[in-house]
TrEMBL record:
Name of this chain's protein: ATPase
Transmembrane feature ranges: none
Domain KAP NTPase intervals: 16-381
Pfam families: KAP_NTPase (PF07693)
Species of the source: Acetobacter peroxydans
Length: 648
């Protein structure tokens, strides 16, 4: 059971409301030209909205809806010509105009050929600013093509060259030199006549995947739309992420100032081209719950299942009030599915489990939601195929994959701990999943009136500060993840680490330390011991160096006392100095250390942290440490370091 990620007219997102609104806007006054933008991040459902719009016009005899995929034609030829020819070709084919209006077709096609021949000149100006080439320009093309005969194999075969020359000379005979505005106007008149011959009241052009194009073809497509075919009785609906189009504008016009007063030039350009913008909103929590439920149940039962159709109807009714979770709660789903509910019981439990974090982690993006679900289901299917059986349970795998996808540092810690535990467990998770427990103890003297027992923490050694746990407990996202069912602290996670090893093989790393174990032990020694290891550490392959650093880091963080440099910090420093790719991992470790650490964490990193991005991260850490009100020594040391950097 995998989920298709194609555009569809089967609406699970209630985007049909957007499609209907757009159709109503462009048909209420079919005489006027209009451009509509359907905006949203990649995967938001823009292409599906276009499919729904196209389906809405299927039975409109006096309206023709055609589709143009800008990305598909990118690189094949000039983007302006591609759009013009694509629109005209579909118009001719869908309305059988070759026989009904042969003369009008011939006129328009000749004008397109004129543009295509001109482009073969390679460098002839043909833009929205300079317009079409003159016959002199085309004559230059003909001369150039004839010159190719000196080495025809280098350019094209004889038949192709003959066709180019014949076409260009034919255009020279039939056309007179015209000024650019006149030539553009003639094309528009010919195209308008073609619409008349087609018996159309309105032409609707859907442009998809424009935001996937490189800046030049993206802008050329928009310019062609406005310059050549945007006229009365035409409507263009453009699906694109507006941020990507604005980026294309900035790349296309690099010399323009960033802003014009309070406005951005790129935004002004986009608003000039697109009159009516629609942005597809991200899915909220209730909408994500409905969407995931429909995806999983639909994949299990099939879109044509009668009970699934009932569930879809209930979902669409619930989407009328997406702020009210009671309209699509477990009782409503069970009632809609009836006897089929038992067939999808596991899917419904999975939905309840993953939706809270999935909604926030994907920012409500439908494609990202589908990708996560497909990855989860594929891994489970692979585990079953390999005979793992009950050793891999879908709820446990789902919870781990949520951490892997949205909290990768947490997943790394869990993976390393589980791989090195004899029972494959990450015991630290118990603190998050269960919370600290109080034991009942009896005092020889009454602790409260009436001699009742009082729950107090049993006496014991002082708690050693664990920076990893401290970091986990300080993160609301990690705490929210830990509350998801089921708890994992008592689960053997080694089968799950094997299933997810396409990302990182923690089990192989644990068993492969072998000869590197001696390196780790020496790096945990004193400075005198590690100072002579430079050559040996430089000889490590990157995967080996990363593995060694992981083990050294965990032993450093397990020290508990950071008032002084812990054992292993000198080794980690030398390892990173000889393996610069580990600078990011070092900064991650430094950021994990508690605010009670000694001033040592500020000093000695200038020769180790050399990359600009990591220096900026260290600067941010210094600023954070300089505000450590409960640790004056650390604050003073960090402040002094910041002043030194400013003077430097």
């Amino acid at each position: 059971m995998l989920l298709a990620d194609n555009e569809t007219t089967f609406d699970l997102l209630n985007n049909d409301a957007i499609a209907k609104t757009i159709v109503g806007l462009i048909t209420e006054d079919s005489e006027r030209a209009v451009t509509v933008g359907v905006h949203g991040d990649w995967g938001a459902g823009k292409s599906s909205v276009l499919e729904m719009i196209e389906a809405s016009f299927a039975d409109h005899d006096e309206t023709l809806c055609i589709k143009f995929n800008a990305w598909r034609f990118q690189g094949l030829e000039d983007a302006k010509i591609a759009l013009i020819e694509g629109v005209v070709t579909q118009l001719i084919e869908k309305r059988s105009l070759t026989t009904k209006a042969a003369d009008a077709v011939k006129d328009v096609v000749k004008r397109i050929d004129w543009l295509k021949v001109a482009r073969m000149g390679g460098g002839l100006a043909f833009t929205a600013m300079s317009g079409l080439p003159s016959p002199d320009h085309v004559g230059a093309v003909v001369g150039m093509v004839k010159g190719f005969f000196a080495d025809p194999a280098k350019y094209a075969d004889r038949e192709q060259i003959d066709k180019v020359i014949e076409g260009a000379e034919g255009l020279l005979k039939e056309k007179e030199s015209r000024r650019v505005p006149q030539e553009v106007e003639e094309f528009r008149k010919a195209f308008d006549e073609l619409l008349n011959r087609a018996g159309l009241k309105q032409l609707v052009v859907l442009i998809d995947d424009l935001d996937r194009c490189l800046p030049e073809p993206a802008i050329e497509t928009l310019e062609a739309m406005r310059l050549f075919v945007m006229m009365d009785r035409t409507a263009f609906v453009i699906a694109a992420d507006e941020a990507m189009i604005e980026y294309s504008v900035r790349k296309h016009f690099p010399d323009l100032p960033d802003t014009t007063g309070p406005r951005d030039y790129a935004r002004n350009y986009l608003e000039k081209l697109i009159q009516i913008p629609f942005r597809i909103p991200a899915l909220g929590g209730v909408e994500t719950h409905i969407y995931v439920t429909l995806l999983l149940v639909g994949a299990r039962l099939g879109d044509e299942d009668a009970q699934f159709k009932v569930l879809v109807a209930v979902a669409r009714e619930a989407l009328r009030r997406p702020w009210d979770p009671t309209r699509f709660d477990n009782a409503a789903v069970q009632a809609a599915l009836g006897a089929r509910a038992k067939d999808v019981a596991d899917d419904l439990v999975l939905t309840e489990q993953i939706v809270p974090l999935l909604a926030s982690g994907t920012s409500g993006n439908p494609r990202q939601i589908k990708r996560f679900l497909n990855s989860l289901l594929l891994r489970k299917r692979t585990a079953d195929a390999r005979g793992f059986g009950a050793a891999v349970k879908l709820p446990v795998l789902a919870k781990l994959m949520l951490a892997e996808r949205f909290i990768p540092t947490l997943f790394d810690e869990i993976g390393l701990a589980s791989a090195n535990d004899p029972y494959g467990r990450c015991k630290d998770l118990a603190v998050l999943e269960e919370g600290p427990k109080l034991d009942t103890v009896r005092s020889p003297a009454p602790l409260v009136a009436g001699g009742k027992e009082k729950k107090v923490a049993p006496p014991g050694p002082a708690t050693v500060e664990n920076p990893v746990l401290t970091q986990w407990q300080a993160s609301d996202v990690i705490k929210a993840w830990a509350k998801l069912q089921p708890p994992l602290s008592d689960v053997d996670l080694r089968p799950y680490l094997f299933v997810t090893k396409d990302r990182k093989d923690y089990l192989a790393a644990a068993s492969a330390l072998g000869p590197l174990a001696a390196v780790v032990e020496r790096l945990m020694g004193r400075r005198m011991v590690v100072s002579g290891m430079d050559a040996e550490l430089r000889a490590l392959a990157k995967p080996e160096a990363s593995l060694v650093f992981d083990y050294v880091r965990r032993r450093i963080l397990g020290a508990g006392d950071f008032s002084r440099p812990p054992a292993g910090i000198d080794g980690a420093t030398i390892l990173v100095r000889t393996q610069p790719h580990l600078q990011s991992a070092l900064l991650d470790m430094l950021g994990t250390l508690p605010a009670s650490s000694g001033p040592w964490i500020v000093k000695g990193w200038s020769e180790v942290i050399t990359e600009d991005a990591e220096r900026q991260r260290f600067q941010t850490l210094l600023e954070r440490w300089s505000k450590a009100t409960d640790n004056p020594a650390l604050a003073a040391s960090a402040t002094a370091a910041l002043r030194t950097k400013v003077k430097g």
